[in-house]
Amino acid sequence: MKELLKTLALECAPSGREKAVAEVIERTIAPYCDSVTYDKIGNMIAVIKPRRKCERVMVCAHMDEVGFMVRSIDNDGRAHISLLGEVETRTLSGRRVRFLDGTVGIVSTKPIHVMSGNEEERPTYEDRIYIELGAKNRAEAEKLVKIGDFGTFDPKFRPLAGDTVAGKAMGGRACVCALIGLVKAAHAAKKAKTLTKECYFVFSVKREIVKRTFAVETAAFHICPETALILDATPVCDYLDREKEAEFGAVCGGGMVLAPADLKTVYDRELFASAVMLCEKEAIPYQYPTTASGVGNEGGSVHKSGIGVRTLSVGIPTRNLHSGAEIIKYRDLDAVSAFIRKWLLDVEG
Amino acid sequence: MMEMMEQKELLFALSEKMSIVGFEAYDREALTALIAPHFDEHEYDTIGNHIFIRRCGKENAPRVLVDTHYDEIGLMVKSITDEGFLHICNIGGVDVRILPAAELVIYGREPIPGIVLTKPREMMSKEERKRLVPMEELLVDIGMTKEEAEIAAPVGTPVGFEPVCTELKTGYLAGKGFDNKCSAAAVFDALTSLDMSKLSCDIYFSMSGREEVGHRAIAAAVYRIRPDMALVLDVTFGNAPGSEKICSSDMRGGPVVSLTATLDTALTDFIVETAKKHEIPVQTVVEATSTSTHADDIYMAAGGVPTALISIPVWFMHTANEMVHPDDMRSSADLVRAVIEDQFGAAVEKEEEVSA
Amino acid sequence: MFTELKKIVMPIGVSGDESGVSAVIAAEIAPYVDKVYNDALGNLIAFKKGKGKKPKKLMFAAHMDEIGFMASFIDEKGFIRVSRLGGINYTAAAFTEVIFKNGTKGVLVPEARITQRDYRPENYYVDIGAKSRKDAMRRVKIGDTCHVAPNLFKLSGSRVAGRPIDDRIGCMMLVEAAKAVKEYENDTYFVFTVQEEVGVRGAKTSAFSITPDYAVAVDIGGAGDMPSCAPLAVNLGDGIAIKLKDAMVICNPVMVGMMKEIAADRGVPYQLEILEGGGTDTCMLQQAAGGCIAGALSVPTRYGHSAVEVIDMNDVAGGIRILAGLCETKLN
């Protein structure tokens, strides 16, 4: 699984340009699925279902990550950008970024020596930064990047001590990784004739640039599932202010995050309660999210799509979410993997 | 003749070496192995200075010192929290604004990777979002418990940016510690390509330490060497938005010679003339009363040394991705080589010209 | 009518967890319709077949959820932190009795050193009198919902106060309308929606599955007759309000006209409501699936989202007559 996670983490898939990750996923899961198709806006839908008709369950994880687009190139050959998604802007300055064709640039930092007023005391913001490509002028820069080109943080797979690993988009990719594992397990269940649900695995696009509805809604529209499970990274801030436990509830390494509700969804009462019971019974480590972190995920669109979908959400606690170095622990990924197998297929992880 | 390293390869190799100010000895042997074979003699003193020497073989030859500091800014483990996270403090001028989510290496017994933690935006209040998190509130995640961390990364352990060197499509090089290892790579190129038999001076190449915390070591080296002339190579600011407020120079504009009242004006003029003569691109910058480099210190050390300063323009100084263009490094090497040859090899050169 | 309302006001039904109130309403309305069922999100749908060939589909929606709280964290001493569900007025919610779904009682209080000016959700906690985390967890689990204690009492004349009148009054009006209708001209769906207070969610899915031709939401509205309140040409007791617009919808003039006509025919006093802020199920009814002709009735209400919401039962009675009138009108 680490190898797969590494492969996924090293691909770049800013919202709207998910192809690189989609290809890895499709290559990996195609042999196990009844079908793998894409809906009209790019969500990948993989299906594994038994012969007879039964409950339709949709499990989704998003393929995309935060990134940026080139907005303009100035006469000095500097590329100015618009952000895709909630990039942690304070982590941008001085970092390597990569365009989809592999072109590398460095995000500017103003030397302390040239700052005025209280600039030194403020974090850097996107309106004052640009990407330095080293081009002499606009013409040279335009040979390297065009207006509208997509980019992301420089991909990296950086294991820390123990079971910790860091890199851009690591939280989201870990969810993709767990979902791929579930696809394989569902295939095995089908062969063993123990599959009791019509399984729809959705690898969604454009999750990070949500405005009103998540792009995954179109997949839900086609599938019309009765039940849905959303996998996503959960931001945690478990290293500051331990006294304010209420605010910083979930911790990295504390197991999968099971949210009763967030700002976009009140998760189905029965699904939530039975998920808690399942974790208790199977001794799968689980925890509740922070109250402050519940800004919501794709569940917000899925649960109210069509005639309504009973929805549950499971998260992988992630430090430094939306930065160039997100941090997760394998044990949390393992917990999520174990849970979703047991939940969907009633098999051991 | 040993296989000569390209400037780029040497710069990348030097960048990888850990030489955080105060901990210059960490990769001492690796650095020695990289440079010393190309010189006649090597000394390492007690305060972090490497001196590499090439001799011309003539008695009482004048001594030329070419100095590039090779120490770099960094951080240090200040304390360890109960959860095993590291508090850090800086050694030298690290800009705290580039630290959130920065990739670090903790140089304990074994180098350990670490990541600076940053609070998710959605958990910040409006006031917090506008505020820069000061160094003392930043924490580094190394994936260890407190007990493990106390052994692997005890308080006082130096911490640096992860070395990742990149060549951009425009030819620019980006990485950490290029301040001032790009100068070292250029000078190495210049000095190792000199034909010592045609020169009438001994060459002392000092890769000096402790520059970033107040130029603490160079005077001692000068005291021991007693040079007759010194060239200092350091980095300077490349032009960028907002940089007009300080003395900055064009990237790819060639080496920058400092015009200043604090250093030897005759030597400075000679360098500019030499550049013109050899058609080496060169720029000048006025730093009237102070250059804030080792040049100021060497000039006044050990009874006084005629000294001049040549700088290589870089972008994003003191970050993990300082940028330099190889053309500027190459021209700097050409200039150093030309200055030494014109000053100490004039007779030989003229003879050659005649015979040709 | 007070008794009927009280029956529907008392059960708990915080957004996303409406099963308690749903069961009560289902029992109330079942005798008067053909079919009663809940959908995936929990919307309660009561269906009554209309007469004739291919009757049009008419949908009424009143949300049965109420604002409330969800336990999100229990500290070592057994104090419970709660997330809000819906637009809580924290000044009004300070120092109130709260009740969890399983009957556990507690009090909702701000931290001691917080001044009223700085009331924020994260500074509030529920004290259920527990001695420790373990003790508290025996009675309350993370994810459990609670609400400010329900209440309903009579003021002078036809006026009534309490909570959650938003929007149990609408639910009660649908039930009463179902009782009052003599003959259904249209296929009629009485929908008691879920999760209105957290973003008009239940209306979207129920309207998608029903695909009505006409739809009317019934909810509380504003009133403009209190001391130094924002101007609004709606007075308590001057009749039910027919919504023209709110922040999320502009009502279909066809529906507005139809309701005005019925009111005039049946001698029901009415007012017109133009609400600057807020929204109701109407917006989702109008745009769900292929869209439909939608409007809304608003019960003029003072002090919405507090524990002392005030209405006039005469307005309510008029509203019921308009709803019944719609059922008895053949729609094309």
Give a brief description.
The complex is a heterotrimer of chains A (349), B (356) and C (332). Chain A has 349 residues and is α+β, with helices and mostly antiparallel strands.
Entry keywords:
heterotrimer, B: 356 residues, alpha+beta, Aminopeptidase, Elongation Factor Tu (Ef-tu), domain 3, 2 domains, 8-stranded mixed beta sheet, 6-stranded antiparallel beta barrel, 10 helices, 24% strand, globular, C: 332 residues, 6-stranded antiparallel beta sheet, 9 helices, 27% helix
Architecture overview:
The complex is a heterotrimer of chains A (349), B (356) and C (332). By secondary structure, chain A is an alpha+beta fold. Helices cover 26% and strands 24% of the residues of chain A. The longest helix of chain A has 22 residues, at 170-191. Chain A is globular. Chain B has 356 residues and is an alpha+beta fold. Chain B folds into two domains: 7-72 and 176-355, 3-Layer(aba) Sandwich (Aminopeptidase); 74-161, Elongation Factor Tu (Ef-tu), domain 3, CATH 2.40.30.40. Chain B has helices at residues 7-16, 28-35, 126-130, 146-152, 178-192, 218-225, 265-277, 294-300, 326-344, 346-355; strands spanning 41-44, 50-54, 63-69, 74-80, 86-91, 103-107, 111-116, 139-141, 158-161, 166-167, 173-175, 202-208, 229-237, 256-259, 283-286, 307-314, 322-324. Chain B has an eight-stranded mixed beta sheet, sandwiched between helices. Chain B is globular, with a radius of gyration of 22 Å. The two termini of chain B are 26 Å apart. Chain C has two domains: 2-66 and 164-327, Zn peptidases (Aminopeptidase, 3-Layer(aba) Sandwich); 69-148, Elongation Factor Tu (Ef-tu), domain 3. In chain C, the strands form three sheets. Chain C has an eight-stranded mixed beta sheet with strand order 1-2-12-3-13-16-14-15, sandwiched between helices. In chain C, strands 5-4-9-6-7-8 form a six-stranded antiparallel beta sheet. In chain C, strands 10-11-17 form a three-stranded antiparallel beta sheet. In chain C, helix 5 crosses helix 9 and helix 7 (253-266) packs across helix 9 (313-327). Chains in contact: A-B, A-C. Chains A and B meet through strand 7 and strand 10 of A and strand 7 of B.
